[in-house]
Specification:
Rossmann fold; 2 domains; six-stranded parallel sheet; globular; two-stranded antiparallel sheet; alpha/beta; Arc Repressor Mutant, subunit A
Length: 211
């Protein structure tokens, strides 16, 4: 099984993905939460495949692709499924481009294919454009399912994945799937952005606290 380097600026997601991939027989050599760390660790660890997110605090992962791809095969794993990003990634040296909504089995298959030097593209619906006003935000929020809206409410209250799972009576994997769907439908890149958007545009009913 290929050795992996996970590069994602969302620590909770990276930890969960690393654990899930480990259970599938992959070895995660290291993780990186910034592009600077990714460039350093790909040289230090020489993984068979680098799973690279699209956006980091210190830049766009696609801009760093040529340098990282010089040391290993790169599979871009992102919430964005736009064709332009896919084309850019493949031209810059990526061997694959998959969305975080593809599912664990599809991701594992993509990793194995990239390790064999095959090209893999697995894109879902493109992320909705970021809302610019109340009407846009409410239009996007109207596409949320009841369970996704519950997850958004819990995000606003600051709950973590494990407490959300207990409260909803589902697995943590199911919660992560719902949360990722919320991010995609609202056109944001993080849980914090989703919560901020919900509060800013009154997308949910915030309970009044006494005292």
């Amino acid at each position: 099984m290929p050795d992996l380097l996970l590069c994602d600026d969302h620590g909770v997601f990276a930890d969960a993905l690393g654990s899930a991939l480990g259970q599938r027989g992959f070895t995660v050599l290291a993780t990186a939460s910034t592009l600077a760390d990714a460039k350093e660790r790909v040289v230090g660890h020489r993984p068979d495949v680098c799973l690279l997110d699209r956006y980091f605090a210190d830049g766009d992962g696609l801009d760093a692709l040529p340098e990282i791809a010089a040391s290993t095969r790169v599979l871009v794993l992102t919430a964005d499924g736009d064709e332009q990003g896919t084309d850019h990634a493949l031209r810059a040296g990526a061997r694959g481009y998959v969305t975080k909504m593809c599912g664990l089995s599809a991701l594992c298959a993509a990793v194995e294919a990239v390790a064999r030097d095959e090209v893999v593209v697995e894109t879902g619906p493109a992320r909705s454009p970021a809302p610019t006003g109340d009407s846009d935000a409410h239009r996007l929020a109207a596409h949320l399912t009841d369970r996704e809206r519950q997850c958004l409410e819990l995000l606003v209250e600051g709950h973590r994945t494990t407490t959300m799972a207990r409260g909803l009576g589902v697995s943590t994997t199911t919660v992560r799937t719902h949360v990722q769907s919320v991010l995609t439908k609202l056109g944001v890149h993080s849980r914090l952005e989703a919560a901020s958007l919900a509060l800013r545009h009154s997308l949910i009913d915030v309970p009044q606290r006494s005292g």
